[in-house]
Amino acid sequence: MKARPSSTVVPSVAIILATLFGLVHFEAAAAFAVGFDHPTHSSPLTLNSNNQLLWVVNPDFNTVSVIRTDLQKVIATVPTGREPQSVAVTPDDRYAFVANAADGTVTVIVVDDPRPDSFRASVDLSAGYQGALTTGAEPWNLVISPDGFKVFVANSGQDTLTVIDVGSRKIVGHVQLRNSVANSGDPRRHFQPRGLAVTADSQRLYVTRFLSFTQSGGRQAEDLGREGLVAQIAVKTLSLDIADYTVTKAISLSPQVTGFKFPGLTFDTAAFPNQMQSIVLRGNQAYLPNIAASPTGPLRFNLDTHAFVNVIDGVNTDSPVDAGTSKMLNLHLGARDPEPGKRKIFFANVWDIAFTTQSGAGNAYVVSAGSDVLVKLNVSGSGQLAFTGDADTTRYIDLNDPFFPLTSGDKAGMNPQGIAITDDGKTAYVANFVSRNVSVVDLAADVVKASIRTASLPAAGSAEEVVQVGAAMFFSSRGNFDTIPGTNSLRDRLSSEGWQSCASCHFKGLTDGVVWSFAAGPRKSVPLNGTFDPRQPQRQRVLNYSAIFDEVEDFEANIRNVSGPGALAGGALDPNHGLLIGDTGDLNVAPSVLNAFARANVDRPQVTFTLPGSAKHVPALTALREWVRQKVRTPSAPLTADLAPGGPVLDQVLEGRLVFFQAGCASCHAGNGMWTTAVKDFISPPSAADLATERTPTQVTGNPVGAQFLWRFLRDVGSFNLGVPGGGNEFGKNIGAAEKAAPTVSNGVLAAAQDALGFDYNADGKGAGFNVPSLLGIHASPPYMHNGAAESLIEMIQNVTHRTGNGRFEDILQDPLKQIQLAAFLESIDSQTAPITSVEIDQVGKDVEISFDTEFGLSYRVESRSAVAGGLWTVLDTLPGIGDRLTVSYPIALATQFYRVVEQR
What we know:
The protein is mostly beta strands and 905 residues long. The protein has 11 helices and 53 strands. The strands form 16 sheets. Strands 3, 17, 18, 19, 20 and 21 form a 6-stranded antiparallel sheet that branches. Strands 8, 9, 10, 11 and 12 form a 5-stranded antiparallel sheet that branches. Strands 24, 25, 26, 27 and 28 form a 5-stranded antiparallel sheet that branches. Strand 9 and strand 10 (105-113) form a beta hairpin. It starts with 5 loop residues before the first strand and ends with a strand.
């Protein structure tokens, strides 16, 4: 929310110091005679000081749009860096700053004329390099202090906060979060700063840690095992000394009781705050909407993810604390009994919050990104949140109702991710990522009154159209599908009553970092950027930690059985959920079979979805696969320390690349752009000879689950039961999840959990180990190992059985320096990193042609000899790495039969 600026007094001492010492900051002090009289927070959209202009980012188009609010019309579009995610405007409306996640930069925009009828703005080419300031990897959010002096940027991939001086448009410095009191539990862990907010007096900055970590004594896959965290930073916005921006406190957010129980069972479930994208201050409280996680089984749609809004008290003091149960609210509780005439919709993926007033009683509106709704809450004068109806009823505003003209077709609001409310509390603007528009909401009547398109949808019939439909499938917890005559099950097929979406556990296609109790055992949510090879997108890895899936379409089972209510009584598939339909295309009939391996699931009959302005009915499950293939971006690796603080040392990265090869890591994690040997090498369905279970032949020990898996893709590196107290494989802090599958309930009785996959229970030589995960962007996806036994890369390297391939390789990593070097290299692996062993040799006419991937900073020696073993290698060339694939040719010599490429410093 924005409030009108009020006059502030610039301390005279600041002006005197600036005059005496010639500091550039004098211009900043003189420039701002006004400031916001309220706290500020990061957001993908923001109103200017007088509410006449609305700025909103367009991540798919690398632009920011400026909307004239009285005309509800875009009046300017300004280019930014790649994938802008957050925008902020100075109190005097002279500058806008935009955080570009994919570029690692902030674009500075100068507003030459802020008046709506003659508005002019352009990139400030005098700032940084052509208007872009390099801040660090993955700057997802930024915020301007209310006094207008400083911009703070959360570099999620760099673990730093960048401080920018507005007056000079220069970087003051960077605040380290990884090695601060904010990360005192284990400074080797990535903090991943995300949401930002500054108190009204511009003296305190708050930043959220995006993913939760285990709390003291906690374990993975347990409801009470982890905690959220927010850091408080003391700031002096008149200072140009980075030492005046200091991390002072870490506020832990404890797990809370959800209010939901498994049907027939009596015990309460709990959840811990997670995926904290935003933090908004009001009065003396901070509000944190987040996707809370409840991983302990039994597995059921309304037990695993929750719509928490956690609250911190005392944010205007030096002693902020978690308000705990006294003020925290699980929004899902307010969806159990909808208002008369409304559908029952739970509020998936709460992402942002805004208030109608900054003090006293008022209302709050929470963005539900998965369910496409705004959730209305009451706010007391003391900051207490409450539902608008009773304990199980609260009002919501549907942004994507196909039966209401202002929220259907081109006006539908899909995947809202940010909200801004005008000073008078009467109008809200909501930025919708998938539909690429802004919903305008009348808060007096709680209805959508208009929508404003900020970016175009793909052309009808284009390949991009299919991908965009896939985005709608991935981010939605509901879905409004194309009409098929005589049916009534075309809504809410993606989950049970809108409870969750794919994005609930896979932020932007990546991971929530949670180890879940699944039917195969404890499994961390796998980041999907490693599903397809970014260099050769037709190449795919085998899926899941136990290789139980071979197609993206196999996750139809998760849509139905994890996010949905599962099978009907008696075990029949439910025709009213999921994307696959009857084999003849009959929507009223369930698919004949849903199995990962019995038949290929690709291109089976499925529901379709049509984008506004198009007549093409796009198959929904196929589109979901294509979105994963083409649009899940691997996070950028941290910039090295010579480019930005917080990153690994370049020399250590280069040495670590050699250590990676020497230690044998490449035997499992190299050879392609997915950095894994688990490459699918067959056309679905797989051969029966590739399939195995731990119950056939009969197991000789334990009580394993009976799921089929692709046994030849498993690699045993000694990680079964890793870090489990008393499990015979203790490691580190012993936080790993126990190797048990999710327990089941029968007739109101909780059955004992079966043993998880990963061990050879029947001694047939096929079940030990796990499917090799991708290392692509691994720095951004803690914890590590299937059961989360390690929360940092260096900790993972310290496990001897893993780093030696369970004793297959010589242990050269006993040296702590080599461990540091290897960790630095692992942090550097992103989509631009050349794979280790991708070498191809072909005969082209009378020449031999050798192609291989290269990396900047390394050189490559091409050698040949006449025998496969013995004899000297002849050096043909020594070539510098170009950061891309390199191809060289040599005349064929009869004495030469063997070639190799040697990587060197």
